[in-house]
Amino acid sequence: MTLTLPVLPLRDIVVFPHMIVPLFVGRDKSVAALEAAMAADKEIFLVAQLDPANDDPTRDDLYSMGVTASVLQLLKLPDGTVRVLVEGKQRATLEALNERDGYFAADIALIEDKPVEGPDVAALMRSVVKQFEAYAKLHRKLPAETAAQLGEITEAALLSDSIAGNVQIKVAEKQSLLMETDPVKRLEMSFALMEGELGVLQVEKKIKSRVKRQMEKTQREYYLNEQLKAIQRELGNSDDESNGDEIAELTQKIATLKLSKEARAKATSELKKLKTMAPMSAEATVVRNYLDVLLGLPWGKRSKIKRDLIAAEGVLNEDHYALDKVKDRILEYLAVQARTNKLKGPILCLVGPPGVGKTSLGKSIAKATGREFIRQSLGGVRDEAEIRGHRRTYIGSLPGKIVTNLKKAGAANPLFLLDEIDKLGQDFRGDPASALLEVLDPEQNAKFNDHYLEIDIDLSDVMFVCTANSLNLPQPLLDRMEIIRLEGYTEDEKVEIAERHLVAKQIEAHGLKDGEFTLTTEGLRALIQRYTREAGVRTLEREIAKLARKALRQILEGKATSVTITPDNLADYAGVQKFRHGLSEQEDQIGAVTGLAWTEVGGELLSIESVTVPGKGQAKVTGKLGDVMKESVQAAYSFVQARAPSFGIKPSLFHRKDIHIHLPEGAVPKDGPSAGIGMVTAIVSTLTGVPVRCDVAMTGEVTLRGRVLPIGGLKEKLLAALRGGITTVLIPQENEKDLAEIPANVKAGLKIIPVSHVDEVLRLALTAPLEAIDWTEADELAALPPAPIMPVGAEVHH
Fold first, then answer.
1. Is the separation of the CB atoms in 572 and 527 below 8 Å?
2. What would the mean pLDDT of 576-590 be, rounded to a whole number?
3. Fewer beta carbons within 10 angstroms: which end of the chain, N or C?
4. DSSP, res 566
5. 364 catalytic, yes or no?
6. Could you give the CA distance from residue 349 to residue 617 in angstroms, rounded to a whole number?
7. Residue 718: which H helix or E strand, with range?
């Protein structure tokens, strides 16, 4: 049967019989064809184009077979296109194409479907439907009910066309299905095409599920990280500024920093590791922290060193009064560095009692040389890893304090002040004093190896200065340092320091204005004499702060507009007098001797008392004495026994009397041999009944032959004697050479007498010559107990 119908060429789609399809028509000829069809019986011929891009197809551009269709609905859209709903009717071949009023009309020949039936066809139909169900499950664009609807079709031709219309295959393959007129062959072709599509869809599904899992994991991590950032932002712990691309930033740092060859190789290696790691992994955090430390060190950065010694001397004099010997040694040290441009030489170690300015001297040296100042307190450090760092195998590992402070300084040549080096501890975790040996050795510290960094760090440009209260240090560590002693200040020096620095500092600290607080020189001297007894000025500063606080309160309460502290009103502000200034004893007493002791906090006066009690010639000692001091008492007692006749003492007295020697302040440990001549003097005075001069103090070790041996800490002891109001000090003859280093005002305020034998000590310390004593009178006097005395305290005595 031949018909003539308007032609609607189709792009990228093939319409099968019994299919209802929406089409969008925009070409003028196609619109005209639709209008012609609507004007007639709404019948139109649909045929696919060979080339979808061709806007004006001819006969040769169209396939030879298409379908007739009914136009169910037509809607013209505002942009000029037409939306049309068509339903396929029957296959037809294109016989001829004729152009009419603005559209093409086709002469077509209708094709009837062959009727097929039988069990083979039924089995094939069932297999095709089952295959389509599997296909529909994998193809998400198909509605779920499509497979069920197809299962209800009983005609092979209709089933084959319905499946061909729903399978997503290429236009050419669909056209081949349309051109096949045998329904059984169409079913077989559909089955084969679906088989191929199923394989592709299954692989696609696997890929999609794998990608989805990965995406879900990434999205989950991203989501959780964003939540974590939001929580941290709410807690105020987040840095809002972006650091940019971290890897690129690290790469740039490695390229620009002046790293050593070893450090550059290590940094590059660690960066390669970081690139291959997941950003949020724990290992990546360890590598990132390592690179932060390594690249944060001051590679090639150095402060400009000042070489002007005159300016350096000016800085030291401005910041510290007195300490001339110490300043001279520091300036010599700086002079050598300025000339040689190297730091080779011993490490300076400032040793002295608390409060004499050791730490502030370190600051002044840094200021004078233009170096960055880093203070590292070693008090209580007992872990070797504090110096050398932890190995990176440990969780939470960190570099040592040396590397950390070097990074903090921002320069490769800072001044490191190792404060309180004598307070280093030691336990099962290692000995930090031994770890410091490499740091403080100029021959070794050019290749200091930190356990965390695992590369050599050059510390040869770092200037190390140590401070300590005593020389209680391991000998190898002591051997690497040059000891500079800061013995303490005289009263005049303390007055000068307070007037230059301390008073002004406390006035500023307490917010006092000019003229509101005045501390007169006499008031300051009285404060030093009656309220402090120390080598440094720390207690003095606290007392001045106390005066400033009380003065400020009076001013704010309106009781005064300004406060002037004098000796007369000092007690009103400073409270009850703490120390008695002047002689430790007010009168000469039998068996009471004033000795001199050295402690870590300066010199102290040491009272020695002795008394005889009925007994059998034993020597009893009390006052928490150390082994050395007990032996010193035994040596003194034996010497007196051996020389008793020459001292006017009856030998029989040792069979009837015991000697009890006591050092007051029994709770304070005391040790050292330097009270030897004081012990001899106390024993002789007790046994002879001759009082000891109260204005005489003495220090020196004694031998069994009566020789006086040298002692240490002479300056501190002389300062203590000056503070205690002593006028005459007996020192060993061999210590006379040390007087050259004693300040002139100390030597002017004391009568210092060198002695070489106990006989000289007794002649100078006792109030009467021993030869003039009558035996009977001496025996009676020795039995009398001495008058009670005021003890003068001491710390740990040597």
1. no
2. 78
3. N
4. -
5. no
6. 49
7. helix 714-723
The CA distances from residue 638 to 341, 594, 624, 678, 684, in Å, are: 60, 21, 21, 14, 12
The token pair that represents 679 in the structure block: 């012990």
Q: Any residues with CB less than 8 A from the CB of 213 and at least 6 apart, and which?
A: none
| Cα-based distances in Å from 178 to 187, 478, 679 | 11, 104, 132
Sign for the CA dihedral angle at 764, 766, 767, 772 comes to negative
| 746 contacts: CB under 8 Å, gap ≥ 6 | 490, 715, 718, 719, 722
CA proximity to 376, closest of 367, 391, 387: 387
Q: How far apart are CA 517 and CA 535, in angstroms?
A: 26
Which of 10-14, 150-154, 527-531, 704-708 comes out lowest in average pLDDT? Answer: 150-154
Helix (H), strand (E) at residue 755: strand 751-755
pLDDT in tens, 37-79: 887 788 888 988 888 888 888 888 888 888 989 888 888 888 8
Give the whole-angstrom CA distance, residue 315 versus residue 110.
116
CA geometry: angle at 795 spanning 790 and 798, to 5°? 110
- Backbone dihedral angles phi then psi of residue 788, each to the nearest 5 degrees: -65, 145
User: Is 293 within 8 Å of 453 (Cβ atoms)?
Assistant: yes
Which residue from 200, 121, 192, 120 is spatially nearest to 163, judged by alpha carbons? 192
Q: Rg of the chain over CA atoms, in angstroms?
A: 54
- Tell how strand 481-485 and strand 517-519 pair up: unpaired
User: CA nearest 364: which of 334, 407, 402?
Assistant: 334
For residue 551, which of 596, 524, 515 has the smallest C-alpha distance?
Answer: 515
Structure tokens at 568: 């007369």
What's the longest Cα–Cα distance across the chain?
173
Instruction: Extract the tokens encoding 263.
Output: 């450090």
Active site residue 208: no
Residue 614, judged by CB atoms within 10 A of its CB (0-12, 13-18, 19+), counts as exposed
Evaluate whether 432 touches 384 at the Cβ level (below 8 Å): yes
Structure tokens at 55: 């806007």
Q: What is the pLDDT of residues 552-577, one digit of tens each?
A: 999 999 999 999 999 999 999 999 99
- From first CA to last CA, the distance across the chain in angstroms is 136
Looking at 670, 674, 685, 715, which residue is catalytic? 674
| Residue 195 tokens, joined | 């088989």
Euclidean distance between CA atoms 106 and 454, whole angstroms: 89
Q: Which residues contact 672 (CB under 8 A, 6 or more apart)?
A: 597, 598, 626, 628, 629, 632, 797, 798
Least confident of 2-16, 353-367, 669-683: 2-16
pLDDT band at 693 (very low <50, low <70, confident <90, very high): very high
Lookup: tokens for 192: 């084969």
Contact partners, residue 305, CB within 8 Å, separation at least 6: 337, 338, 369, 370, 371, 413
Catalytic annotation, pick one of 29, 358, 670, 717: 717
Q: Give the single-character DSSP code of 670.
A: B
DSSP lists the bridge partners of residue 10 as 48
Task: Tell me which residue of 387, 469, 382 sits closest to 430, measured CA to CA.
Answer: 382
Give the containing element (helix H, strand E) for 401.
helix 401-409
| Residue where the block lists tokens 């030291």 | 316
Point out which residues pair with 728 in neighbouring strands.
696, 751
- Output the CA angle 251-255-260, nearest 5 degrees: 115
pLDDT in tens, 744-798: 888 998 999 999 999 999 999 998 887 644 444 444 444 444 444 334 343 434 3
Element (H, E) at 598: strand 592-599
Contact 18, 163 (CB under 8 A): no
Other Cβ atoms within 10 Å of 540 Cβ, number: 22
Distance CA 285, CA 279 (A): 8
pLDDT at 576: 93
Compute the distance between CA of residue 386 and CA of residue 435 in angstroms, rounded to an integer.
9
pLDDT(600) > 70:
no
Report yes or no: 610 and 660 within 8 Å, Cβ to Cβ. yes
